[in-house]
Amino acid sequence: SEMLAQSLQDEVRSEMLAQSLRDEVKSEMLAQSLRDEVKSEMLAQSLQAEVKSEMLALSLRDEVKSEMLAQSLQVLEAYPELQPWFTAEQARARGAVPIVPLPG
After folding, report:
1. Which residues of the chain have pLDDT under 50?
2. How much is the pLDDT for 97?
3. Which of 1, 28, 40, 101 is the most exposed place for a label (fewest CB within 10 A)?
């Protein structure tokens, strides 16, 4: 009877220890899952910031191109004799290589 009680107590202790270990493992798995989720969210935010930065850079480049075009048009209005040279420069910028002498 004494041995049976001792055996039952050992079994209960063993089951409590096993349950405690299972709870610890679940807790660690949950913590790891939360860490992964935080890393994923941080990566998503980093990518969003990178996309916004790239979009801003593209917008600024477009703005600069628009400003340069506007200035070029103002120059051409003021100096229409530059039109052949300007057209040749545009063609050269696109990869063509026309040979047009500068005016004057």
Report:
1. none
2. 59
3. 1
Are the beta carbons of 68 and 87 closer than 8 angstroms? no
Closest C-alpha among 104, 46, 48 to residue 79: 104
Q: What's the CA gap between 2 and 10, in Å, rounded?
A: 12
Contact 86, 72 (CB under 8 A): yes
pLDDT tens-digit map of 32-52: 999 999 999 999 999 999 999
Rounded distance between C-alpha atoms, residue 81 and residue 3, angstroms: 114
Q: According to the model, what pLDDT value does residue 84 have?
A: 81
Burial call 29-48: b when 16+ CB within 10 Å, e when fewer: eeeeeeeeeeeeeeeeeeee
> Rounded to the nearest 10 degrees, how much is the dihedral formed by the CA atoms of 45, 47, 50, 56?
-80
